[in-house]
Amino acid sequence: MSSKIFETLTGMYFTMDAPDGSYSTGQVIRLAAEGLYFVRFDGNEVTLPLELVTVGEMLDTTEEEYKLWRFFDTIEERDTWIEWLDAPSKPRVISLVKPTK
Question: Does the residue 94 lie in any domain?
């Protein structure tokens, strides 16, 4: 793979799902080596140090084939996703009675 392909992730924001149903957020800071990135996870009060993450880890999926990492170009796009994800679902009423004429 060329370095141009790897560089496309630099600067992107992400969410990363955890097995317990929670998620983490952060930003891809820069390419460290081929297939390896420095990422910074968001902290509540303190900026956490950079961590190294492989492209393989970023492509990881659950047993049901759901992606664990989602990438966004802007914080606003990521925040919109998080708002949708955290919003309570609206119950739908489905009538089981056959309408009569």
Answer: no
Residue 72: CATH number of its domain: 2.30.30
User: Is 90 exceeded by the pLDDT of residue 85?
Assistant: no
Q: How many domains does the chain divide into?
A: 1
CA dist 62 and 69 (Å) reads 11
Domain that includes residue 47, residue range = 1-84
- Band (pLDDT 50/70/90 cuts) for residue 64 is confident
**DSSP for residue 12:** -
Q: Is residue 27 part of a domain?
A: yes
Q: What's the pLDDT at 45?
A: 67
Q: Are 14 and 78 in contact (CB under 8 A)?
A: yes
Nearest Cα residue to 27 out of 5, 51, 3, 2: 51
Distance CA(91)–CA(26), nearest Å, equals: 32
Q: What's the pLDDT at 88?
A: 80
